[in-house]
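ugh ok so i messed up the first submission bc i forgot one of the chains. this is the corrected input, ALL of the components this time, i swear. 687 residues overall. if the numbers dont match what u have on ur side tell me asap before i send this to the collaborators (the ones from the other lab, u know who)
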Amino acid sequence: MTETPAEVEVSPVDYAKAPINASLTAEDKVRLLRQLYSIRNFERVALKHYNEGRMGGFLHLYIGQESVAVGTCSLLGENDHVITAYRDHGHALAVGMGMNECMAELFGKATGCSKGKGGSMHFFAPDKNYWGGHGIVAGQIPLGLGLAFAVKYKGLTGSCLAFLGDGAVNQGVVYESFNIASLWDLPVIYIIENNRYSMGTSLDRSSAFRNCLAERADGFRIVWDIANGEDIYEVRAKTWTAIERAHNESRPTVLEIDTYRHYGHSVADAKHKGGYRTAEEIEKYKNLHDPVLVWRRRVIEEGVVAAEEADAIDKETRAEATAAVKFAEESPVPTVEAVQQDVYFEVDRQTEAGRTGRHFFND
Amino acid sequence: MPLIEYRDALNEAFAEEIERDPNVFLIGEEVAEYDGAYKVTRGLWQKYGDKRLVDAPISEAGFIGLAVGASMLGLRPIVELMFWSFCTVAYDQIINNAGCVRYMSGGLINCPIVIRGPANGGTSVGATHSHTPENWLANIPGLKVVSAATAYDAKGLMKTAIRDNDPVMFMENTLLYGEKGEVPDEEYLIPLGKADVKREGADITFIGHGRAALTALQAAGQLAEERGIQAEVIDLRSIRPIDEEAILNSVAKTHRVVLVDENKPFCGVSAQVATMIQEKIFDELDAPIRRVCTLDAPAIYSPEVEKLQLPTVERIVAKALEIL
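and heres the new structure output, hopefully the right one now
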């Protein structure tokens, strides 16, 4: 599938020529393709086992949006941080978390990234500057502001990419955060992943806006932009502009990235197909705007990779996801004792403070 | 020992910890240039500047969330709530983020934050400004809750709270800010989880926290003077962790207990204390456990009546006499 279908809108600007993209090596581009396939296949395999009833809770799939996490997270430096909401598998893998620890977390195992205590919505890897994985819509946004505040407080050149969905933009804390970010010149980049549906409610039915959601930033003197999420070059170019603004001017940015989720809000969302959106619409996005296929086509056209190699990457990442399931299956569940571990730092470490007074009140 | 106001004891704790640790900063509404709504932070901004004393807009969810996020990266924020009552608009940040982030990350992330401010009724500011949320917060495993009754305790507990690596919710009291108490010149720390026997006695135990402990102390004085009854007064100081040993030891000694609590009775701190006594030393009790709590309604405005809504010396004495 190397030809460009007629219906695809080609961006008038070729963001491949942006310096941040022009400097990409063939190897870099293949690595991006591998990341896209990793996320896609991790979730496809996870979905299969979720549907078999092997996991608890919710599963919010990122399939269709992979280019956003892959493009933005490919730009992170030592002091650049990431925080996101509950649709967090893509960002986790994009910052370099392993499939084993992520899959084991979905299976509720002690070897999971959060020891089986967080689940699908709560992946964390602070060693990779990845601060979750948060379940309450927009609850993570002030935390991202705080990470940026801490970067600045410590005198470091860095930023925080704080991801939120188009539904989250109607939570009050987003605007409290915009105000503080602008008022105090904090290096935070709000990335609105606009997949057009706030759970089961369309954008037009949930949000009042003039031209786009990011434009709301105008009232706070925050520079904003919008990007076509299916084009990794565009995502990277516009995110890099925001990161440079954070690094050089310590100013925030609101970047709205248009994207689309192929599955429902969560797997349990029965009305996503033919209910609040049409089957035709979903098919259109799958066929013409799938970010994995768009990038695959692009790098094949550029001669960076052969179709057979791309197929091999697809296969390898699927095998990796399948192996991660085996790892998860063979891992132990947490002990009952673990239920009351990781509650208090001082208790876990059995410090003097942790040994003073009663902390837990079991019957 | 110097006699200083409760508010200045806290002020000393902030100054000492700001000087000791470059990661400590204080943030809240009007804490810097205005010197704090209750002057608890007076003079600190002039001394330590914008970086360490941060005036925040009226956005409790925004700046508490900011502080939680900053603490995840190793800073040690002290957050002032002008009233603890305002925690309601920041509840998600306190409960889900400060309270759960360590757990949900499997212990990978810490949240060494202090949130502090007055949490009391009795000042005729109406129900919305008169909440005592220590029981709401102590219900959340992951949070610690502290309540200081005296200047000495306020300073020693605050310094410990700032150094603690878990999120500490620190309850102060506008009626106590101006109360003077002895505070030593030399540095001291009071551990969390250690109650204080504010008065020794063998006939009955009063247990309370914050201003309720002081009301209990007054009641004990009256009982001693008028009837020769010696009440022991335990000030919990720390609610979670709680000093169960001190509670049980005292009740095992006196065999009678009245719990004094400015919380509302339903699931108030005293309800938990009563459960612990009943579970652990039922046989030591010579009488039923009694409680004196805030009368069970939103805080009334009417100044004269609000005083009666809170635990009073008269109600404590009457309850004590019922079981003596």
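quick check: Chain A touches chain B through 57 residues (CB under 8 Å). that seems consistent at least. Residues 336-363 of chain A form one domain.
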